[in-house]
Design a protein that fits this description.
It is a single chain. This protein is an alpha+beta fold. It folds into 2 domains: 139 residues, no CATH class; 42 residues. The protein is built from 5 helices and 13 strands. The longest helix is centred in the last third of the chain and has 20 residues. It is globular, with a radius of gyration of 18 Å. The mean pLDDT is 85.
Length: 192
């Protein structure tokens, strides 16, 4: 079975009432999720910062009906961010859909939904059959990569970060040369 790494539409940040253990743990262990919404949710699956995922009730029902594995559903507290009134002005007469917390509990690359253990640009991994279902809903603001493409992107990003950390005083010419080296090694589209 093929797997994909996805980054759903980012709608905000984790709210102050989110209860979690270990900001640096990946995936973060969250026991209560609050989303401070900054952007209007346009998709049925959205993200708040890192590891805070929510989705519509109709998507949750479809996931249950299709018996997809690696996800549980719970209540999420959604509050408006300081600038959300601007988003409301752009969507007159519309209401934000009621959301559920999508707790991804599966093993990445095994279950239909899972989170990568450790650092990564796109921690959410979905199976091909889960992706087909997601695409049958509003899912247009999501970035999707095959698992292999995402791993190459991670390697390129890690090499670039390492260079920047080791050579903070590098010249523009040195940075350009290193970027070109990484582009050649990993493919131009994979350099941060």
């Amino acid at each position: 079975m093929k797997f994909f790494r996805v980054e759903p539409q980012l709608v905000g940040t984790l709210g102050d009432d989110t209860i979690h253990e270990g900001w640096t743990d990946r995936p973060m262990r969250i026991s209560k999720l609050q989303i401070e919404m900054d952007f209007w949710p346009q998709d049925d699956l959205v993200e708040a910062s890192t590891d805070g995922y929510a989705g519509t009730h109709r998507l949750a029902e479809a996931i249950k009906k299709n018996r997809l594995t690696g996800v549980e559903f719970d209540q999420v507290d959604v509050i408006e961010g300081d600038q959300f009134w601007l988003e409301k002005d752009e969507h007159p007469g519309q209401t934000v859909p009621e959301l559920l917390w999508f707790k991804f509990t599966g093993k990445a690359g095994v279950d239909d939904f899972g989170l990568i253990q450790g650092p990564g640009i796109f921690p959410l991994v979905v199976s091909e059959r889960a992706l087909v279902l997601l695409k049958s809903f509003s899912f247009k603001n999501c970035e999707i990569k095959t698992l292999e493409e995402a791993q190459v992107s991670d390697m390129a990003a890690n090499e670039w970060r390492e260079f920047c950390r080791e050579c903070p005083d590098s010249t523009e010419e040195q940075r350009t040369r290193k970027r070109q080296e990484i582009e050649f090694k990993y493919g131009a589209e994979n350099v941060p």
